[in-house]
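Help!! Second protein's tokens look totally different from the first
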Amino acid sequence: MQVTTVEKQVKVFTPMRKLAVILFFAFVASGCDDNTPPNGQVFIPDVPVSITVNMDLPLHFHLQNLGGFSLLEGGHRGIFLVHNFDDEFYALERTCTFHPDVDCSFVQVDSANIQLRCGVYENDTFNQCCQSLYSFDGFVLQGPSRFPLKRYNVLRNGSLITIRN
């Protein structure tokens, strides 16, 4: 019995078609592995921020020293204003970038280790929310978070610091 050219093409096409379908589904499934938002950033709500801090006032006088920081009202969950050891000022959102919608994902200062960590204080006891640790400029030091803390724009004019977004 002779096999015609059309039958040979059908026999070759069927395995190729199966392979193409398998590769297509493998490609689609590979894009569903890590919950990373499409733009590579986590969503932290934008809230209008316009704060001026006077470092000559006793409440913020400590900001004149390297390593000084203040907790400010504003932003989504509050803002840390940090005078980092590189002599720069950073205004950082207090929302942890690892699951920012979880109630405990607040960033707190760990002044003993000069870093920021994710969790909340309850009755003077720190309860970790995740294992994320951040430097005073907002970058991830360790933990599950892959994104730095959200920064606000900082403008210094003498002893006045203005924070905006």
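Here's the second one for comparison:
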Amino acid sequence: MDTGMNTRYQRRQEIVARKICDETILVPSSGSAAELLRLFVLNPVAEYLWEKLREPRTLEELVHDLLENFDVDPVTARGDVRGFVTTLCRNSLAEEV
């Protein structure tokens, strides 16, 4: 996975997201049995980024969106966005497009 700031990423379509008790939970709907048993709970910032990934977005675009909507400094935003997208891709929840 290239984590360059201008690479575009999008969430995978086969991932089901459900809001339960004010938390968003991601559930893979296809893949191996082990993948289907994994759940991912998103905090409010991760939920915001997940929604942004409905359409292809670069890391730089996600950082910009985060800075516009949350009280966070640019260095923290870049690190958090890069870490979140890397985690999504490693767990087959998002992909480069």
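Reply: Different proteins will give different token patterns, so don't panic. Residues 8-13+43-96 form one domain.
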